[in-house]
Amino acid sequence: MHIDLSGPRRAARLLADMPREALDSILLDLADATDAAMGELLSANAADLSRMDASNPMYDRLRLTESRLHDIAADLRHVAALPSPLGRVLKHSTLPNGLDLTRVSVPFGVIGIIFEARPNVCFDCFSLCLKAGSTCILKGGRDAEQSCRAIVALIHGVLSRHGLPADTVLLLTSHEATAELLHAHGDVDLIIPRGSSRLINFVRENARVPVIETGAGVVHTYVDRTADLDKAARIVLNAKTRRVSVCNALDCLIVHRQQLGALPQLCAPLAEKDVEIYADDAAFSALQNSGYPATLLKPATSESYGTEFLSLRMAIKTVDSLNEAIDHISRYGSGHSESIVTEDAQAAERFLRSVDAACVYHNAPTSFTDGGQFGLGAEIGISTQKLHARGPMALEEITTYKWVIRGNGQTRA
Fold first, then answer.
1. Overall average pLDDT of the 340-357 stretch
2. CA 395, 397, 399: angle at the middle one, nearest 5?
3. pTM of the model
4. For 141, which of 73, 150, 153, 412 is 20 to 30 Å away at the CA?
5. Measured between alpha carbons, how far is residue 314 from residues 30, 92, 175, 358 in Å?
């Protein structure tokens, strides 16, 4: 069955002519509507939650609460207050023949977002796309279907009051719709997948529309031989347990062999949070008789490395050198976020220079990989590729540009 995806393109042309203040007004009205419709949104979300086991790592991503909805409304108001990313002069010059050239930021047009059990993505992506002058097509997972329907219905009500068509944001729900979206060359300008590596790989392998890969994070922290152990323990705990279901959460702790004696000290705070550890032989021996709960300590297997756990689980790898740590990250990392804890300035600079990832840290947790934390105001995802955008993608990264040439009758010889 063919799905008509041409509506958002027509709606995008309407957005291109709207004053920037009108777009901000829509977002402010949506924030108020979100606060007012909290009961309906939570009821729809409860229906989705009832179909998912609470032990599923995706459960936390699926769950909406009053606090989270209040935060979403605050985020909408914040996006409205950000400077417009459109119409910025990125480059300007005058040629010897008198032609005036400017490179100006403009909307992409139509952006498709494919995501899994995260209904908040509907708010995030709509607000950022609208602010950037683009319409969006949302394809959520079946786990969040009722939540997404309720959110998009709320958005449609606000759009209607402002005289904009419902196709300004289009929600797709059927399985067949995914293939239609991925093959919608001409109707869709860009696809952004947000979710697991499985989802991202599927989109990359099947799309006929340009794709920006985001989300999947196999994240490491390397505790070097000169690391400050108190600093390291705080960094590891925050990176692993601040919020386990997000892409910047720690998956593998890499430890220099000279720090094995300090491993119980590093891991003691993790035990208090019930973190299950998959340790290699050396790390397992260091932790086995240290008081780390036996029920939470398991031998690592080949599958322990390169896994994005999204839960209270973590691997440990012992290395003999900085080079070995970098090699491990190169083999198992996803290009998302990587950190080194060390007091050796040369080792830190070597790590920051050599590790190929969107975000690299020295003596700080990877939990800071976030558009808001980076001062970007908001984000639509974390790009792990190198073309167009890398790292937290905010308003600037979801615009493109065009050249504007002004002349006075010049002709080319």
1. 98
2. 75
3. 0.87
4. 73
5. 39, 50, 33, 21
